[in-house]
Amino acid sequence: MPVKIFDAHCDVLCKLLLDPGLDFAHECSLLDVTLPKMLESGIGTQNFAIYLPEDLAGQFDLVLKSIELFHERILSNGQLRFIRTKDDLRLAAENKQIGALLSLEGVDALQGNMTYLRTLFYLGVRSVGITWNHANWAADGVMEPRKSGFTAKGLHLIRECNRLGLILDVSHLAEKGFWELHELSAKPYIASHSNAYTVRPHPRNLRDDQIAAIIRTGGVIGITFVPPFVHATEPVAMEKLLPHIDHICSLGGRRHLGLGSDFDGIKEWIVGLEHAGNYQRFVELLQKHYSEDDVEHLVYKNWNHFYTNHLPENE
Questions:
Q1: Do the domain assignments include residue 315?
Q2: C-alpha distance from residue 253 to each of 39, 86, 298 (Å)
Q3: pTM of the predicted model over 0.85
Q4: Taking the mean position of all CA atoms in its chain, how far away is CA 155?
Q5: Number of structural domains in the chain
Q6: What is the CATH number of the domain that holds 85?
Q7: Domain annotation covers residue 314
Q8: 61: in domain
Q9: Mind telling me which residue stretches traverse the membrane in this protein (predicted)?
Q10: What is the mean pLDDT of each run of 10 residues along the chain (315 residues)?
Q11: What are the start-end ranges of the H helices in the chain?
C-alpha cells in the first residue's frame, strides 16, 4: 500500500487554462499531475495553485476561469474532495478521497482590490503566495533587481489575509519582503515550494535564518523538485534532495518540512521524479535514510497537521 503523500504545490490548473485540450481525468503525457498518476502514487492531498503567466497575470477573470476549471476538470470525477475547512480535510481522509486545496500564486490579478481577495476566500482559496519572481503591486519577487519589500497596499494585504484566515506563502518573495511579512504577520506562514540556500545557493531558496524563522513561527517548508533549485549540475538525481532535507532538519525542521513538487510548473525534471506517478520511488529512497515515522511526517503528516490547525472551522 502506498505511503500517503501531501503535495503543497502544483501548476496543472495553468496548463489546463492555456490548453483546454489537455485531459486531467485520464492519462496524459503532457501533464505531470493527472488523476491516474495521483491514484498510482498514493496522493492524499494536493494543493492546486492558481498561477497566471506574467503576460496574463493582471487578469482577474482568468483567476475565476481557473477556479471554474478546478470544479469542472479536477473535482467533477468525484474522487477528489474540495478542502475548505478542517472538516473537509478529515472527511476526505475518512472517505478515501484525494483532498484538493486551492491556492493563489501571485496577487497581481487582485489589482490591490481587497474585495477580490475576499471573493477568492469565499470561493475556497486557502493560501496566497504574494509574488511570482518579479514585482507586482504588493511586493517584489526574488528576481526583481531592486530587491525591495512590500508596498503600503501589500502590507494591508498581509493584515487582511490574517483577518480572513488565508495562509501566507513566502515562496518567490524577495528577502526584504520576507522579513517584513515575518514581522507583521500575526499567524504562521509557509514556503510551499522552496529549498535550502546553504545547500544550493539560488535566489529561490531559503537562507538559514529564513528557515529558522518559519520553524519558529510554526510554519512548514515544502521541498521542491525544480532541478536548478536542487543542484547546480544536471541531470539531477533524487539523492540530491537529501542534503536539503538533512540541512533543514539540522535547523530544527523535522516537523516543519513537507513536499511542494512544482509539477506542471517545470520544464525539466529530477531523474526518477518526472511526474506525480513516481512519488513512491522517492518514498523508497527516503525509507533507506530516515525512520518510517520521519518519512510519514515529511511526505504527509507535517502538512496535514499544519492545515488541520489553520484551515477555517467548519462552515
A1: no
A2: 29, 24, 10
A3: yes
A4: 22
A5: 1
A6: 3.20.20.140
A7: no
A8: yes
A9: none
A10: 96 98 97 98 98 97 99 96 98 98 99 99 99 98 97 99 99 99 99 99 99 99 99 98 99 99 98 98 98 99 99 85
A11: 12-18, 35-41, 60-69, 86-94, 114-122, 152-164, 175-184, 208-217, 227-230, 242-250, 279-289, 292-296, 302-310
